[in-house]
């Protein structure tokens, strides 16, 4: 069986991406390695907001999940797999990393 078609592949790719973000964060000290409490609060808030938007989208029939590409572990319904939480974490983390990187970069050019 080809690994790309495995039900674990999407989760594996998400976790691999998060690993890369953690290594970047550890090296540059931008988010969790800069202000861990603020990072946790910010990312948790973003995940809650995005999860609420997902739930509304599912209720309206806008969002759905292809069951062949998820692990089969669900949060509320089959259209909200556990991978969605991991994806929302990745999305929030990368957004915060990019924001902090831009802010840090701008400061280096201020005279």
SSE layout and pairings?
Layout: H1 9-28, H2 36-59, H3 82-109
Helix pairs in contact: 1-3, 2-3
Description:
The protein has 111 residues and is mainly alpha-helical. The chain has one domain. 65% of the residues lie in helices and 0% in strands. It is built from 3 helices and no strands. Helix 1 runs parallel beside helix 3 and helix 2 (36-59) packs across helix 3 (82-109). The longest helix is centred in the last third of the chain and has 28 residues, at 82-109. The protein is globular. The chain starts with 8 loop residues before the first helix and ends with a helix. The model has no long low-confidence stretch (mean pLDDT 92).
β-strand amount: under 5%
Distance between the termini: 58 Å
| Class by alpha and beta content | mainly alpha
Mean pLDDT: 92
CA radius of gyration is 17 Å
Number of domains: 1
Q: Sheet with the most strands? A: none
> Are there runs of 5+ residues with pLDDT below 50, and where?
none
Helix-strand topology string: HHH
Instruction: State the total count of DSSP E strands.
Output: 0
Q: What spatial form do the alpha-carbon principal axes imply?
A: globular
Residues in helices, as a percent range:
55-70%
DSSP helical segment count: 3
């Amino acid at each position: 069986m080809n690994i790309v078609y495995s039900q674990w592949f999407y989760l594996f790719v998400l976790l691999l991406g998060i690993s890369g973000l953690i290594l970047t964060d550890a090296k540059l000290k931008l988010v969790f390695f800069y202000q861990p409490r603020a990072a946790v609060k910010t990312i948790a808030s973003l995940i809650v907001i995005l999860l609420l938007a997902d739930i509304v989208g599912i209720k309206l029939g806008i969002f759905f999940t292809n069951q062949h590409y998820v692990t089969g572990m669900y949060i509320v319904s089959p259209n909200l797999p556990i991978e969605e939480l991991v994806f929302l974490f990745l999305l929030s983390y990368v957004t915060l990393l990019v924001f902090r990187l831009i802010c840090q970069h701008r400061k280096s050019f201020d005279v």
